[in-house]
C-alpha cells in the first residue's frame, strides 16, 4: 500500500535530491585519496567505467523498481512479484544497510560539524602544525563532543525529513547543491593557484598503471557503488518519488555526471594544496582532520576562511546524503497510522543509539575495548557497510531487475509507457544489467570476502 502521494515536483528537483544523496563524504574524503593511491589517471579510467556502466545500471534499476511500484524497498520487490514475497529480502537487506551506514555516517558528520564549529570560533587556527594529530585523537577519544554534534546534525536531518519530500528534501537539495559547488570551486581556485600545486595535480591525474592492482580495481567498483548511493535501496525510494514523465536513463546520467564531477573537483581542491604546503596525502580522517588543517593554517590570515568553507562544504555534502538514508528508513516504518514525523523520530532515535555506542569505539572505555576479531564496533560497522553489504544487495537487485522482471515491464517503464521509444542506449543498459553487472558484482563480492 502506498502511504503517501508525495513526490519530487520536477526532474530537476529529483536530480538535485539524488545528486545530493550521491555527493557526500565518499566524494570528498575518500575518492581523491584512493584515486591517488591506485594510480591516478589509471584508476580514473577504471572508475569512469564502473560509474557509468555498473553504477548507473544499478541506479536505473532502482529507479525503475521504485517508480513502477511507487513503494520503498520494503514493499517494492514483493509488489512487483506478489506471488513470490520472498523477494522482499532484497529491500530489507538494503534498508538494514542504510541503517548501519547512517550510524557510521553520523559519527563522521559529527566530527565534521565539530571541525566546522572549531574553524568558525578560531580554535583550529590556534593549533600548531604538529598539534593536529593529538587534537583529533583527544577529540575522538572523549566522545561527549562528538555525541553533541551527532545530535545537532541528526536533528537538522530529521527536520528536513519531517518537512516532506518536496518541501523538505527537494527544497533543501536545490538550495544546498549549488552552494556546495560554489564553495568547492572556491577551494579549487585557491588550491591550483598555489606555488607547487602541479605536484598534487600529477598525483591525482598522472596515470601510473603499475599502481593499478587488482585491489585497486575492486576499490574502484566499491567506491562507484558507494558514491552513487546504489545497492542499498535509497534510490528505490527516490525512484518512487520520480515524476512520471522523467526520463529514467537521462536522469541517471545527470546524477552520475554530477557525482563524478564533484569527486574530481574535490581532488583538485585538496591535493594541489596538500602538496604545495609540503604535506603528504593521507586517507579519510587523517587527511581531513589532520593534514588539511595544517594546509589551511599555512595560508595565513585567509586560512581561517578556507577552513570554514571546507568544513561547511563537507557538512553540507554529508547532510544531503544523510537525508536520503533517513528518508529510506522513515519510509520503511511509516504507514497510514504512523505518519512521517513520528516515523522519522523513531528511526532517528534508533539510529542515534547505535551511532553513539559506536562513537565510544575510540575511547578507553567498555565499548572501546570491545573487539570483533581485531575490529572495534566502529571498524565492524565500517567494514560491513563499506565492503560487504552494498555489493550483496546490489547483486540481488541487479539479478531481480535483469532476470526476474520481464523485458516488457522494463521497456514500459524506461519508455514512460511508450511515450518515448526504446533507444539503443536503453537496450545497451539492459544488456549491461543482465550480463555484465551481475558478473562484475559477483567478482567484487567474492574477492572482497576472500580478502
Ligand atoms: N553516496 C554517499 C557518499 O558518497 O558519501 C554515501 C551514501 C549515501 C551511500 C546514501 C548510500 C546511501 F544510500
Task: Please describe what this structure looks like.
The structure is a single chain. Helices cover 76% and strands 0% of the residues. It is mainly α and 451 residues long. It has a single domain (11-450), classed as Hydantoin permease. The model has no long low-confidence stretch (mean pLDDT 94). Bound molecules: 4-fluoro-L-phenylalanine. 4-fluoro-L-phenylalanine is lined by residues 21-22, 24-27, 98, 101, 226-227, 229, 232, 234, 321, 324-325.
Q: Helix segment count?
A: 19
In total, how many beta strands?
Answer: 0
- Any ligands, ions or cofactors bound here, and which? 4-fluoro-L-phenylalanine
Shape by Cα distribution: globular
- Helix-strand pattern: HHHHHHHHHHHHHHHHHHH
CATH level 1 class label: Mainly Alpha
**Compute the gyration radius: what is it?**
21 Å
User: Unreliable runs, pLDDT <50, ≥5 residues?
Assistant: none
The chain-level mean pLDDT equals 94
Largest sheet: none
Which secondary-structure class do the elements indicate?
mainly alpha
Share of β-strand residues: under 5%
Question: What is the terminal separation in angstroms?
Answer: 42 Å
